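Duplicate of #3305? Posting structure anyway:
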């Protein structure tokens, strides 16, 4: 993702003043003074990056997934000093999918059963994906009494009010998310397919252009900026 962000940024005319890895996080922030840091890494590196950004008061946009509750608490503390935007997915299409899922959840009767299926490549480390968990959170904010069910095995009927979560891993799948609403005699499917990781880089840069102007320290989500 770092290479893709670099490629797209160069195409769009942005200036990259610093590239960092796990061993150089924060090394030259004081010299280069970037307008914003864009991070696609792993939780330990993201926490170190945010700590370095706090020192120099630089806003951070991160697409890192798999953050623990402890990591999020640390980021909330950092966000008291600098603006931080965290999103598991910077695809514009996924943003629209989440809106559509919310509308469907509101309008369909509660006797419609909901299942979420996500598919990713073999190297993805977290399951379910951060995007799938965000979709689940969107649904639970509307159906407050819903209970999540990770996978099914043996005798496993769909209990009314439960939301099934299924993670598939294989090959080089970039990212696919399907949300199913099953009724009696009908079903609604809302799906998104990512076929190229470059969409996440383009989305991150699109959001970064808006976000770097945000001066109020806070932990933001994508919807608050778009």
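Output from current build:
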């Amino acid at each position: 993702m770092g290479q893709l962000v670099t490629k797209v940024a160069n195409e769009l005319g942005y200036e990259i003043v610093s590239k960092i890895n796990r061993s150089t996080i924060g090394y030259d922030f004081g010299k280069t003074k970037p307008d914003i840091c864009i991070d696609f890494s792993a939780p330990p590196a993201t926490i170190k990056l945010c700590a370095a950004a706090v020192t120099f008061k630089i806003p951070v946009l991160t697409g890192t997934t798999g953050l623990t509750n402890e990591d999020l608490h640390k980021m909330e503390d950092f966000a008291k000093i600098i603006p931080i935007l965290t999103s598991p997915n910077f695809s514009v299409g996924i943003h629209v999918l989440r809106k559509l899922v919310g509308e469907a959840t509101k309008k369909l009767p509660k006797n419609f059963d909901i299942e979420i299926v996500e598919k990713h490549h073999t190297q993805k480390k977290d399951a379910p994906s951060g995007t799938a968990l965000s979709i689940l959170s969107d649904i639970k904010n509307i159906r407050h009494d819903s209970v999540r069910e990770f996978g099914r095995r043996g005798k496993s009927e769909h209990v009314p009010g439960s939301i099934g979560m299924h993670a598939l891993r294989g090959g080089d799948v970039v990212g696919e998310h399907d949300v199913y609403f099953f009724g009696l005699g009908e079903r609604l499917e809302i799906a998104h397919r990512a076929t190229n990781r470059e969409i996440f880089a383009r989305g991150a840069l699109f959001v970064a252009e808006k976000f770097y102007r945000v001066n109020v320290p806070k932990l933001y989500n994508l919807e608050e900026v778009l």
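Confirmed duplicate; merging threads. Helices lie at 2-12, 29-32, 43-56, 69-78, 92-107, 130-140, 198-211, 222-225. The chain has eight helices and nine strands.
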